[in-house]
UniProtKB/TrEMBL annotation:
Membrane topology: Multi-pass membrane protein
PANTHER family for this protein: MAJOR FACILITATOR SUPERFAMILY (MFS) PROFILE DOMAIN-CONTAINING PROTEIN, PROTON MYO-INOSITOL COTRANSPORTER
Organism name: Aspergillus niger (strain ATCC 1015 / CBS 113.46 / FGSC A1144 / LSHB Ac4 / NCTC 3858a / NRRL 328 / USDA 3528.7)
The protein's name: Major facilitator superfamily (MFS) profile domain-containing protein
This protein's record includes keyword Transmembrane helix: yes
GO cellular component entries: membrane
Cited Pfam families: Sugar_tr
Molecular functions per Gene Ontology: transmembrane transporter activity
Domain of life: Eukaryota
Family statement: Belongs to the major facilitator superfamily. Sugar transporter (TC 2.A.1.1) family.
BP GO terms, sorted: myo-inositol transport; polyol transmembrane transport
Gene3D superfamilies per record: MFS general substrate transporter like domains
Residues making up the signal peptide according to the UniProt record: 1-23
InterPro entries: MFS_dom, MFS_sugar_transport-like, MFS_trans_sf, Myo-inositol_Transporter, Sugar/inositol_transpt, Sugar_transporter_CS
């Protein structure tokens, strides 16, 4: 008989395995782009490397996946409502399989567009479902850690994507097809594995299936601990209340409830602002264009694909500490990692300055330029790895039960919208601002704003049950800011507190 602890870990890790598909499909395009350019120039789709249509189409190939993910995030809510959390993840695997097959077998740029968009739909469905599924199944003391595993798997998938680029780069014909088709293996593994995991007990209870919900709950909790029974009873009461409150409300009408109810509106602003400041520092534009960024530092095509693994590896390693300590140190500690983005982006920007004065000047200062560039890239990617865990932890736990799917969907739409905006406009932005201006001025400036926003406006949800988090978001924003300010000033007050006078020895 499986122990509850073992099943919880298995459920969390395997559900988060879907993140590897997302990460692989985000990064593998970086290594595939050189081959795609050569193939479709040879086939006559593009006239030459200087063809303006090529630049536009390459931007679309990179950015259509987050655009498709926006559509997937909107589909995710009715899927979650009618089919459940687990089955929605299984459905996302089917979209992954179809999209990967289309990309690998593309005979035209239009087919490649369609494949990337369909892949995005799979990412949008899965990205919103996994966090909810894990949050509703696992105990609160490990919830943050296990939801963070999803981001760890995204980072691991990105390494695999870059590695696939290196492995298939020298395949004589159609290397890019092998790269883009590599996710078929992982979507099949996920599809089979999810079939053996239980459905969310909270979703089962919401459908009146209390017997099944109780059986699943017992398999996921140590019932010798009285808190497990108390948590189940609290969950059942909360779910019944939410179902009764929304008995005559359609699932799509709950989108209005997210914006209309002060408790949910605070959660929405908090979650979307945190995602905004992460995405608008350019992470996905960097991931999708990693080989282009390396080429700017005078690496050839093969070297650019291989060196991309440096950024992917830093992201993966930076994610590991957050996964194991998210529930120890809390969400606010890891959110302050955004401060180190500024340092990393500044170093990358200064490194790019050495490319502005010709090849001879760059070669003369090559060691300095590459040292600055790679130091900054590793810092930026590593600290973003930890921060990015919050992208999934925060929305998954912030909304009330009856609006959790809608809240997660809205957050996912904004995440992919900002990713699309930055990715699609990346080339145009760097031409207008230069690489240095873009990394230091635009991305670094937004990181600085994000640091101060989260310092004062971010609540702490560590060790709280989902029902206790409901109470936290009932707190007015002004009171939260006052509380955070008071906590920040505590060390200063202790330092300047006068020593007590010993009247007996005076």
């Amino acid at each position: 008989m499986r122990s509850p602890r073992m099943l919880v870990i298995t459920l969390g890790v395997f559900a988060a395995f879907s993140g590897m598909l997302s990460g692989l499909d985000q990064s593998v395009i970086s290594g595939a782009l050189p081959g795609i350019r050569k193939h479709f120039i040879a086939s006559g789709e593009w006239a030459s490397m200087d063809d303006p249509k090529l630049a536009t189409d390459i931007s679309l190939i990179s950015s259509l996946m987050p655009l498709g993910a926006m559509a997937g995030a909107l589909i995710m809510t009715p899927l979650n409502f009618y089919f459940g959390r687990r089955n929605s993840i299984i459905i996302s695997c089917l979209w992954y399989t179809l999209g990967s097959g289309l990309c690998a077998g593309s005979r035209s740029v239009g087919m490649l567009f369609a494949g990337r968009f369909i892949l995005g739909i799979g990412i949008g469905i899965e990205g919103g479902c996994v966090g909810i599924y894990i949050s509703e199944c696992v105990p609160p003391e490990v919830r943050g850690n296990l939801v963070s595993v999803y981001q760890l798997m995204i980072a691991f998938g990105e390494i695999i994507g870059y590695a696939a680029g290196g492995v298939f780069f020298d395949v004589p014909s159609g290397s890019w097809r092998w790269m883009l088709g590599s996710s078929l293996l992982f979507s099949t593994i996920l599809l089979v594995g999810m079939a053996f995991l239980p459905e969310s007990p909270r979703w089962l209870a919401s459908k009146g299936k209390y017997g099944r919900a109780w059986r699943v709950w017992k398999s996921l909790r140590d019932m010798a601990d009285p808190k497990s029974l108390d948590e189940y009873l609290a969950m059942e009461v909360t779910v019944k209340h939410d179902v009764d409150q929304s008995a005559n409300v359609k699932w799509h009408q709950r989108y209005l409830e997210v914006c209309r109810t002060p408790r949910n509106r605070r959660a929405l602003v908090y979650a979307t602002a945190m995602i905004f400041f992460g995405q608008m520092t350019g992470i996905n534009a960097v991931m999708y264009n990693m080989s282009n960024l390396m080429a700017k530092m005078n690496f050839d095509d093969r070297e650019s694909v291989l060196m991309s693994m440096v950024g992917g590896g830093a992201l993966f390693l930076g994610t590991i500490p957050a996964v194991f300590t998210m529930d120890k140190f809390g969400r606010r500690v890891w959110a302050q990692n955004i401060l180190m983005f500024i340092v990393g982006l500044a170093l990358v920007g200064v490194g790019y300055l050495y490319t502005n004065n010709g090849v001879d000047y760059f070669n003369e200062h090559k060691a300095t330029a590459l040292g600055l560039f790679f130091s900054g890239l590793v810092l930026y990617m590593a600290f973003f790895g930890a921060y990015s865990c919050l992208t999934w932890v925060v929305p998954a736990e912030s909304f009330s039960f009856n609006t959790r799917s809608q809240g997660m969907a809205i957050c996912s739409v904004f995440l992919y919208l900002w990713s699309f905006i930055v990715t699609y406009n990346f080339e145009g932005m760097q031409k207008a601002m230069t690489y240095t201006g873009l990394t230091i001025g635009f991305f670094g400036g937004l990181a600085a704003l994000g640091f101060f926003y989260q310092l004062f406006f971010m609540p702490e949800t560590k060790d709280k049950t989902l029902e206790e988090i409901d109470e936290l978001f009932l707190m007015p924003t002004s009171k939260l800011v006052a509380l955070n300010t008071s906590n920040l000033l505590k060390p200063l007050r202790r330092r300047h507190r006068p020593e007590p006078v010993d009247n007996y020895n005076a």
